[in-house]
């Protein structure tokens, strides 16, 4: 199988934002192809956009999700109810028009923990809210290096009819290039080249960036893990001691029950033996009495027979 056929279904995602690369379907363009890319390139080169300058962008960016393609009829209560299925929602901001107050179709949802955010990131994508299929992404405004918003010619995704179609995001990733990659030109423009040999499939989900931990946090985590291990060891030791004590108690109770059962059996056996001996003795006594009475009767019969014989043959007196 050739390299070209292998790359047909392969994609990759942008870790940093570059306006020219975002406008390319395979991430290898070196020339802007629409006016919006020129505006985004200008804002990026002279630093006109500050991603941390928005006073409304509050909260922890590592616990915040970007939710887009919402229905214009979806309000804060409906969105909070839907997103609460995946964790505890700490803050929710539905972006509205400054003049009319109407929803602009996207919102920012902050969760209590990063784990809950990641759960919603995995499960809420392409779910249906008020008959609209939403997309869910991490907070690229504050977490993606070089980010330029859509109003300044940047952003990600979009529709072809808008003339501002952008690639590299979760909804529209870069396709693996089928033509030779201009590494030298990309290097001059500061555009990261495609990761040859490390492409992903459309079914694989890119992981959002993780929080960088300093040395103090690592020491606290190691201390916490050590205390948990010690508590687990002590708990295991206590449980083993309790198991030994319980086994000893069960063994002693078993021995006591066995001794009581044996004594009761011995007593019942002794009583049974004594009763059987008494029965046998009474039986023998009755047999002996019958024999004695039979012999006595035989002797009496013999004496009476002799007296009758003597009386018959003795001379009578006149």
What keywords describe this structure?
4-stranded antiparallel β-sheet; 318 residues; 8 helices; 47% helix; alpha+beta; single chain
Explain the overall architecture.
There is one protein chain. Helix content is 47%, strand content 12%. It is an alpha+beta fold and 318 residues long. The protein has a 4-stranded antiparallel beta sheet with strand order 3-4-2-7, covered by helices on one side. Strands 8-1-9 form a 3-stranded antiparallel beta sheet, with no helix packed on it. The chain has a two-stranded antiparallel ribbon with strand order 5-6. A hairpin with a 6-residue loop joins β3 (89-96) and β4.
Order of helices and strands: HEHHEHEEHEEEHEHEH
> What is the residue-mean pLDDT, rounded to a whole number?
80
Give the strand order, joined by hyphens, for the main sheet.
Answer: 3-4-2-7
Spatial separation of the terminal alpha carbons: 160 Å
Low-confidence stretches: none
What global shape is seen?
A: rod-shaped
Largest sheet: 4 strands, antiparallel
Number of helices: 8
Strand content: 5-15%
Structural class: alpha+beta
Helix content: 40-55%
Radius of gyration: 50 Å
Number of strand elements: 9
């Amino acid at each position: 199988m050739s390299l070209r056929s292998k790359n047909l279904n392969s994609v990759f995602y942008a870790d940093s934002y570059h306006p020219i690369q975002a406008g390319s379907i395979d991430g290898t363009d070196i020339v802007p192809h629409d006016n919006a890319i020129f505006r985004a390139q200008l804002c990026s080169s002279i630093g006109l956009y500050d991603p941390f300058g928005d006073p409304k962008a509050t909260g922890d960016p590592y616990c915040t999700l970007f939710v887009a393609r919402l229905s214009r009829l979806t309000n804060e209560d409906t969105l909070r109810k839907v997103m609460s299925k995946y964790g505890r929602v700490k803050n929710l901001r539905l972006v509205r028009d400054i003049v009319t107050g109407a929803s602009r179709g996207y919102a920012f949802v902050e969760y209590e923990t990063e784990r809950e955010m990641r759960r919603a990131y995995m499960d809420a994508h392409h779910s249906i809210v008020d008959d609209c299929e939403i997309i869910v992404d991490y907070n690229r405004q504050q977490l993606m290096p070089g980010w330029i918003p859509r109003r300044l010619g940047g952003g990600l995704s979009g529709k072809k009819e808008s003339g501002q179609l952008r690639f590299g995001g979760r909804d529209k990733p870069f396709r693996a290039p089928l033509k030779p990659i201009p590494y030298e030109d990309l290097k001059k423009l500061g555009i990261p080249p495609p990761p040859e040999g490390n492409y992903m499939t459309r079914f694989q989900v890119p992981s959002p960036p993780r929080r960088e931990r300093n040395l103090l946090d690592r020491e606290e985590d190691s201390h916490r893990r050590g205390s948990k291990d010690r508590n687990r060891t002590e708990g295991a030791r206590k449980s083993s001691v309790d198991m030994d004590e319980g086994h000893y108690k069960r063994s002693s109770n078993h021995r006591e029950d066995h001794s009581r059962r044996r004594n009761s059996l011995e007593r019942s056996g002794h009583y049974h033996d004594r009763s059987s001996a008494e029965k046998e003795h009474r039986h023998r006594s009755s047999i002996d009495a019958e024999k004695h009475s039979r012999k006595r009767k035989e002797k009496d019969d013999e004496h009476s027979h002799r007296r009758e014989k003597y009386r018959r043959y003795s001379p009578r007196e006149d």
